[in-house]
Amino acid sequence: MKAAVIREYGKISLEEVRKPELGKGHVMVRVKYASICGSDQHIFRGEFHPRTQLPLIPGHEFAGVVEEVGEGVTTVTPGDKVTVDPIIWCGKCAACLIGHFPACTSLKLAGIDLDGGFAEYISVPVNMVYKVPSHVSDENAALIEILSIGFHASARAGLEADDDILIVGSGKVGNSILHAAKTITRGKIILADVLDERLALAKSAFNDIYTVNTRKEDPLAFIREITGGRGVDIAFEAVGHEKEVEGRYNPVRLCINAIRGAGKVCVLGLSDHPAAILMKELIWKEARIIASRVSHGEFARVIDALDRGLVNPEKMVTGIFDLEDAQKGFEYLENEPAKHLKILLKI
Ligand SMILES: [Zn+2]
Ligand SMILES: [Zn+2]
Question: Cα–Cα 20 to 30 A to 53, which of 11, 69, 182, 281?
């Protein structure tokens, strides 16, 4: 079968590899579309080394159809449209024993810790497979995983119907929070970033959101103005680094300053360096910082939202490439972050 393989960091190319075996309790999925994630970019650059071992077939956001089912599989049948939750938890660590799987100490993801879906076929245990209604497009089905990140963050933060929120970072994660939040809150949504193009892209999907370029405008003054001086109920940090825009707070501290008293900050950005925060600012507000990692069964919620037409993640897609052009897709994302958000690979 054909697969896009990383053999050395910075290079991904189409290869002929052995089709995986279909084990007992497994499902063979013929992948139709896969999406390049921010984590894939980290892997591509070598930043997940040594967690990632080469050669690797990346891809943890993908969807397709069931080609064949292994012994004992009864919940899906060949021809079903499906997507795959890439998370594999150990079931034995302290977090797993209380059912808090995203905090599993040996959490693994298909496409990061083992081969993933940038391939014609993948064989996965049936418990990772979710059926997708046939009227949902293959492209949207490949974006269920990224949306699940936003739905999980919303659940972790306890987002409610009238909450005003701030999302710092208009990248893939920030946009997944935006799409999820739009199905939950009628409140004001403020999106902050340093790239006008990214803010414009999000605004083209949802024209009633407020956007602020933190390089050009003081985001706290802007938030005060929009919320009538009150501050937001929840601020999501989805930047992924701790760097400050000159004259502004770093992303986490911006979130702390943006919330109302007793508000919440939900952090998702995977920064490699400490972010300085001033504890007083947190204490005065008796605020809470909540962390959100991957997802926890939110695939079902996303599929329901897609089924009812409540979300259209296609609006995040800025390019579709054939699998053989995966390198081009990665290079576009690396070199033109203002122009590209989600790139799909057609397989
Ligand atoms: Zn991802
Ligand atoms: Zn565990």
Answer: 69
